[in-house]
Design a protein that fits this description.
Layout lengths: L5 E4 L5 E2 L15 E4 L38 E2 L4 H6 L4 E2 L3 E6 L5 H13 L5 E5 L4 H10 L7 E5 L3 H11 L3 E5 L16 H18 L2 E7 L18 E6 L6 E9 L7 E7 L2 E4 L3 H6 L9 E8 L2 E13 L7 E4 L3 H14 L7 E7 L11 H13 L7 E3 L2 E2 L5 E2 L4 H10 L4 E5 L17 E5 L2 H8 L2
Parallel strand pairs: 6-10, 6-11, 7-8, 7-9, 9-10, 17-18, 19-22, 22-23
Antiparallel strand pairs: 1-2, 1-3, 4-5, 11-12, 12-13, 13-14, 15-16, 16-18, 20-21
The protein binds thymidine-5'-diphosphate (TYD) and magnesium ion (MG).
Length: 463
C-alpha cells in the first residue's frame, strides 16, 4: 500500500498536503519537510484500517459516572519550584516535554531530579544520546548525584532503549534529547520531523503501557534544519519550557500545556556552581542591585500564577535628532510599551516624539500582565523629567487609552508582598480602594494611594 505523504513545518508543526516554500502558519521559509505518518499501530488511528479485527467493546462509550475515579499518582521531583509548575509532581504514565535553548540547563535540571527521585527509592533510567557515560559521570559528580537507584545509558536507538527499559523497569525515564533519538522503522535522519514524531509516538506508548513517567528533552532550534520541540507539543501530556538568558544566572520554567493541572504557575531557579537551586523569594531576587536614586526606575508588583513578584521597570529616554525615534522593550510587550508612551504623550503632555525610548524589565524575566502598565508609565515619565521616583513606592494598575488607571485583580496579595519587602507606599487604581481588605496583620502597613488617571499616578509616584 502506498504510504500517504504530508509536509510538516519543522518549526511549528503545520501540516500541508503539498510542499510550500513558506509555512502559512509561522511564516518561515524552507522549513517544510516530507513526512510519512506512522501506520504501525503506534499512531492513534493505528488499526482502524482493519475494523473487523477490532474487539467488540471498542465500539462502545461510557458515561462519566461509570468511569472509576482514581486520582493520578505523582512522583515528586524534590524541587519545590518544579513541583509547583507540575501541580504537585510528574504524573506516572505521562509524557512530559522539557524544551529550551541549547545550554540553558535542561540536562542539569533533569540529572538533579534523578538524584531526588532516586533517593525516594524509585528506579530511574537516564538515557543520553548527547553525552558519553564519562561525561555524564563528570556532571553527576559536579551535581553531587550519588543515588544507587539511578542507571545511565548512552544510547540513541529507541528499540535498544526499549529492551533496557524492560530489564530495569524504571519509574522515571529521562530521554536526553529527542533530537538524537532514532526509531529504526523510520529511515530518515535523527532530528528530522519524521524521526521526532515516530520517537515521540513510541515514547508515548512506553509511558502509557508500562506506566512510566517519561521526561523528554527537546532543544529549541533557531533554524529549520533540525525539527524543534513544537512538532511534538500536541502529542505529549505536558510541555514545559525552560527560559532565561544564558549569560545570566536566573532560569524560569513555564508550563505551556498540562493535561494534569494548570499552566499558570512558573518556577524560578538560579544556576550556580553546583547546578540549579530554586529561588524561594523571587521579589528579593528581582530587586537585587536596583538603583534607588536615579531617574527612570519604578517598582511594580506582578502576579505570576498564584504568586506576587515585585519587579523593576526601567526606562531610558534620550533626545534624538533622527526623524523616527527608536522604541525598544525588553521583557515587556513591545506594542504595549509603544501604546503606553503614546498615552503619556497625549494625556500627560510629555513630548516623546523626539526621544528614543528604551523600556526594560530588570532581572531578565519576561512578564506579561496589565498591572505592569503603571510602572512603565512612571518609569518613562521619571526618565523623561529626569526626576527619580520614590524608591519605597510600588505602583500597579492597567492603563487605558484615555489615560485612566483601571482595576487589576489580587490587590491584597500585591500590597501584602510590597509590605513584606519593606515598601512604604502603594499606588493602586482608585477603583480598587473600595475593595481592599485591611487585614492589619502586618507590622509595617503601606500607605495606600489611589490614582484615577496617569497624572494622579505620576504625582503620587515621582518625587
Ligand atoms: P546543560 O544542562 O548541559 O544544558 P542543556 O542540556 O540545556 O543543553 O547546561 C549547560 C550549562 O550550564 C553550561 O554552560 C554550564 C552550566 N552549568 C553550571 O553553570 N553549573 C552546573 O553545575 C552545571 C552542571 C552546568
Ligand atoms: Mg543537554
Amino acid at each position: 500500500m502506498l504510504k500517504k505523504k504530508v509536509y510538516v513545518c519543522c518549526d511549528c508543526g503545520q501540516e500541508s498536503a503539498a510542499w510550500l516554500g513558506r509555512c502559512p502558519s509561522c511564516g518561515k521559509y524552507g522549513t517544510m519537510e516530507e513526512f510519512y505518518p506512522a501506520t504501525n499501530g503506534i499512531a492513534p488511528n493505528g488499526g482502524l484500517a482493519t475494523p473487523i479485527s477490532v474487539a467488540a467493546n471498542r465500539f462502545s462509550a461510557s458515561t462519566l459516572k461509570n468511569i472509576s475515579q482514581t486520582s493520578e499518582k505523582r512522583i515528586t521531583t524534590g524541587l519545590s519550584e518544579l513541583d509547583n509548575v507540575l501541580s504537585g509532581g510528574i504524573v506516572e504514565g505521562s509524557l512530559t516535554l522539557l524544551g529550551g535553548d541549547p545550554g540553558i540547563g535542561k540536562s542539569t535540571l533533569l540529572l538533579q531530579i534523578c538524584q531526588n527521585v532516586g533517593s525516594l527509592n524509585h528506579n530511574v533510567l537516564y538515557v543520553s544520546g548527547e553525552e558519553s557515560l564519562r561525561q555524564l559521570k563528570l556532571r553527576a559528580d559536579r551535581l553531587n548525584v550519588t543515588t544507587d537507584n539511578l542507571q545511565i545509558a548512552a544510547e540513541t536507538d529507541l528499540n535498544v532503549i526499549y529492551q533496557i527499559i524492560a530489564a530495569i523497569k524504571p519509574h522515571l525515564l529521562i530521554i536526553d534529547s529527542i533530537q538524537t533519538m532514532t526509531d529504526s522503522q523510520s529511515n530518515s535522519v535523527a532530528g528530522s520531523v519524521s524521526q521526532i514524531r515516530a520517537c515521540t509516538h513510541m515514547l508515548m506508548k512506553i509511558a502509557k503501557t508500562q506506566n512510566i513517567a517519561v521526561l523528554v528533552i527537546g532543544h529549541v532550534t533557531k533554524e529549520g534544519t533540525i525539527a524543534g520541540p513544537r512538532v511534538m507539543e500536541h502529542m505529549v501530556d505536558t510541555v514545559l519550557y525552560f527560559e532565561g538568558e544564558r549569560r545570566e544566572n536566573y532560569r524560569v520554567i513555564r508550563a505551556v500545556k498540562n493535561r494534569f493541572g494548570g499552566t499558570n504557575e512558573i518556577g524560578l531557579f538560579e544556576m550556580g556552581e553546583r547546578g540549579l537551586s530554586p529561588v524561594d523569594n523571587p521579589s528579593l531576587y528581582m530587586l537585587s542591585g536596583r538603583p534607588t536614586d536615579t531617574p527612570g526606575s519604578a517598582i511594580t508588583c506582578a502576579i505570576e500564577g498564584s504568586r506576587p513578584i515585585l519587579a523593576e521597570v526601567q526606562a531610558l529616554l534620550i533626545y534624538t535628532t533622527f526623524g523616527t525615534p527608536r522604541r525598544s522593550a525588553t521583557g515587556f510587550d513591545y506594542n504595549r510599551a509603544v501604546m503606553l508612551l503614546a498615552v503619556l504623550e497625549k494625556h500627560a503632555g510629555l513630548q516623546l516624539s523626539n526621544c528614543d525610548c528604551y523600556i526594560n524589565l530588570a532581572g531578565g524575566i519576561r512578564l506579561a500582565e496589565p498591572a505592569l502598565d503603571a510602572a512603565v508609565i512612571v518609569a518613562a515619565a521619571s526618565g523623561f523629567r529626569n526626576k527619580p521616583t520614590d524608591p519605597f513606592t510600588v505602583a500597579f494598575g492597567e492603563v487605558g487609552l484615555a489615560g485612566e488607571i483601571r482595576a487589576v485583580s489580587n490587590i491584597d496579595k500585591r500590597i501584602a508582598e510590597a509590605e513584606k519587602m519593606g515598601f512604604k507606599t502603594c499606588v493602586i487604581p482608585k477603583d480598587c480602594l473600595r475593595t481592599i481588605k485591611k487585614t492589619g496583620n502586618t507590622k509595617n502597613p503601606c500607605r495606600i494611594l489611589g490614582a484615577a488617571n496617569v497624572n494622579e499616578l505620576l504625582a503620587a509616584a515621582i518625587l
